[in-house]
Amino acid sequence: MDMFYYVLIMLAAILISNVVNRFIPFVSIPLIQIGLGVLIACLPLAFELELNPELFLVLFIAPLLFNDGKRTDRQALWNLRASILALALGLVFVTVLVIGYFVNWMIPTIPLAAAFALAAALAPTDAVAVGSLSGRIDLPKKITHLLEGEALMNDASGLVAFQFAIAAMVTGVFSIWDASTSFVIIAVGGIICGLVLTFIKFKFLKWIRSLGMEDVTLHMLIQILTPFVIYLVAEELHVSGILAVVAAGIMHAFEKRKMDPMTVKLNVVSQGTWSVIIFVLNGLVFIILGTQLPDIIQVVWQNSGVSNWQVIFYVLIITFGLIGLRFLWIHLGWLIPHLAKKDDGGSMNLRATVLTSLSGVRGAVTLASALSIPFVLGDGSPFPQRSLIICIASGVILCSLIIATAILPILARKDESTSDNPRAEKSMKLSVCRHVVEQLNKEITSENKAATQVVMDDYRGRMRAIQKEDIELGKRREIDKEQHALRLQVVQWEKENTALLSEQGEASKQAVSRYNNYLEAMEKALSGRGKSRSGMMAMMFKRLTRQVLHPKQWQKAKERMNEMKQNPEQYQEMINEIRDLREKNTSFVHNKLMALLDESNQAVVWPIITENKRILEQMKQDRGSIKSRESFEQAKKDVQLQAVQIERDVIQNLFEQGKISRDLARELRQNLNLYETYYFGNEELA
Fold first, then answer.
1. Which of 123, 179, 326, 524 has its CA 20 to 30 A from that of 551?
2. Which one has a higher pLDDT value, 129 or 69?
3. Pick from 367, 384, 412: which residue ends a domain?
4. Distance CA 527, CA 673 (A)
5. How much is the pLDDT for 555?
6. In Å, how far from its chain's centre is CA 475?
7. Residue 650 lies in a domain
8. DSSP state of 89
9. Distance (Å, rounded) from C-alpha 207 to C-alpha 199?
10. Largest CA distance in the chain
11. Long-range contacts made by residues 180-185, C-beta under 8 angstroms, separation at least 24?
């Protein structure tokens, strides 16, 4: 039971990390998860996790790399094959030699073979960490593909170099010829093993389907077991299990070309299932890493024969040494010039080189390698400075993540992505609308097709309006401010006209009360106090408090509403009164705006006149066929509610990924609150 509780706590930590990231999006999720892992390790729990490196690789790394292989852009991987191999093979072995000699020179108590083992553990970049960063940081596509391809391939070369360094340390024997031959056999053998086993799996699935076994659940179970089986078989054959699952994943990506109803259904289920598996495994990798840190640090901190400040110094020097070596290898090797095919020459290449250098974060494979260092040598003596080596490896993992999280968002942000660039704002606004339209298009059914098309047309109209905007940023913002003030003025005009109509007896008190509630909602939306998450929570709390403190008033209001709905004629009469009042107010506002319009304020006033005119025409159109449109309007409201939620999620994701500034996110949310009030205005009135 203790282990079960421990697993539950780690799963809860994954959820907490994602919630925390919503509030502090500038801190990457891996760092938050490592921090939560440290907290878990400090809790007084009965169970203590001891990491088995071999089990860690098969349980976490194998399925994650298999999934990454499935999702890899095959064409991009092929186009960048030379650069990927130069990083995955050339840079790894250069890192082992240069950093190995450097560590041995800087820390003489670490023998040369052990220093090579540490360098080999630090050489491979981590596919999981790279994936976490690329999802949050807007790296250029080609750099992202290069990093993903490198991370898929360099684990094998790093682990092979690590194994030979450990063997040389334990036995005292090393042969460059044997090492080179073994590497080729292990790497090529791993790829062949992955391809052969995948081919056998495809034949097996074809045979199963020929027997009429089309159960998606069965096929999904086979797919989940695939990376574990392939990895274990490859390791039993003494070839690279990591390259085997990568090759299998890439081969599975080609399977999608053969489309039939069964494959389509399996792909849909597979996407949902793997998204959950990868979400959990990604989180567990970094949380487990965090749980190991306190014990690793404590051993070195207390008795390693080296002062704590020296350990920190070693970690920083080695981290910057890895980044510097990576930078020189990429820049001098001319790996990057073709990644950014622009005419801005060396500056663009230098920027791309820096981005690629800092993106080489270390992670789970580095920790698993370091922890697999044996405790004793072949003669029975303790492995020299084992705790210090593991501590340095853990420190480099943390430093590489922190540096990438802190610096990459600044360097990766293109000029167009800043909120001070009107083209970027325009692009982001179009992107939001486009995403909503694409998502709604996927949700179309025979029942909601007409309503969805209307909502999609509204968004297309917004996109056309955005595309027509071609005004300097300063002028655009000045116009936005003036329009904002004018919209607030429109609300005041409506309040004044509503009071006047009430005094003249042209509107009932009930209709006036409900319409004033609508105007209050409009005013809140315009002032940024609309339906944000906190605002909705406050509104729910207010209603709950009112229900508890004044139950009789709440019950009477509920009874009045029920009575009204039970009397359709009376209810419809009230709705018609509200529609009349809104129509009179809209006409009144239209006249006021037309009177206000002149040559100096056309850019400010005319869009609001057009908007107001469209609302007036829509109300007149609805009047003649209210009963026949009730079902359609309800369907339209449902689709609009869905669209608003999609738009809100897109804005939040763009902000978390650093693609839009806080100011632009606030502006987009404020606009969304305004649209939401327009969409559900009639519902508020009722």
1. 524
2. 69
3. 412
4. 10
5. 60
6. 34
7. no
8. I
9. 13
10. 104
11. 183/157, 185/239
Q: Which pLDDT band, with edges at 50, 70 and 90, does 318 fall under?
A: very high
Tell me the two tokens of residue 483: 């329009």
126 and 363 Cβ atoms separated by less than 8 Å: yes
Whether 436 is in a domain gets the answer: no
Are 369 and 502 contained in the same domain? no
**How much of the chain, in percent, has pLDDT values that exceed 70?**
74
Q: What is the pLDDT of residue 200?
A: 92
Position 201: which residue type?
A: K
Domain end: 361, 392, 412, which one? 412
Interior angle at CA 272, CA 133 and CA 77, nearest 5: 45
CATH of the domain at 186: 1.20.1530.20
Same domain, 407 and 485: no
More confident residue, 143 or 284: 284
Q: Which two tokens stand for residue 410?
A: 């600044």
* Alpha-carbon distances of 665 from 641, 658, 669, rounded to whole Å: 20, 10, 6
Rounded mean pLDDT, 393-408: 84
392 close to 18: Cβ distance less than 8 angstroms: no
Q: Calculate the alpha carbon distances from 585 to 99, 125, 506, 509, 613 in Å.
A: 76, 64, 12, 16, 12
pLDDT at residue 533, as a whole number? 44
404 and 499 inside one domain = no
Please, which residues bridge with residue 382 across strands?
376
Residue 465 included in any domain: no
Do 362 and 501 share a structural domain?
A: no
Q: Compute the mean pLDDT over every residue in the chain, rounded to the nearest whole number.
A: 75
* Residue 550: per-residue pLDDT: 56
What pairs with residue 376 in β-bridges?
A: 382
Instruction: Please state the three-class secondary structure of 498-531 as a single string.
Output: HHHHHHCCCCCHHHHHHHHHHHHHHHHHHCCCCC
pLDDT band per the 50, 70, 90 thresholds, residue 420? very low
For residues 624 and 631, give the distance between their C-alpha atoms in angstroms, rounded to a whole number. 15
- Mean predicted confidence (pLDDT) in 573-580: 76
Higher confidence at residue 389 or residue 546? 389
Please give the backbone phi and psi of residue 223, each rounded to the nearest 5 degrees, phi first: -65, -40
Any domain includes 645: no
**In angstroms, rounded to a whole number, what is the distance separating the alpha carbons of residues 392 and 104?**
13
**Which stretch of 382-386, 477-481, 665-669 has the lowest confidence by average pLDDT?**
477-481
The SS3 of residue 542 is: helix
What residues make up the domain containing 190? Answer: 52-412
Residues 388 and 484 in one domain: no
Q: Comparing C-alpha atoms, which of 645, 682, 678, 685 is closest to residue 522?
A: 678
Residues 200 and 61 in one domain: yes
Calpha distance 363→287 (Å, rounded):
12
Same domain, 371 and 230: yes
Q: How much is the pLDDT for 594?
A: 81
Please give the share of the chain, as a percent, with pLDDT higher than 90.
6
Predicted confidence at residue 263, as pLDDT, reads 63
Residues 150 and 247 in one domain: yes
Model confidence over 484-496: pLDDT tens digits?
Answer: 788 888 888 888 8
Start-to-end CA distance of the chain, whole Å, equals 54
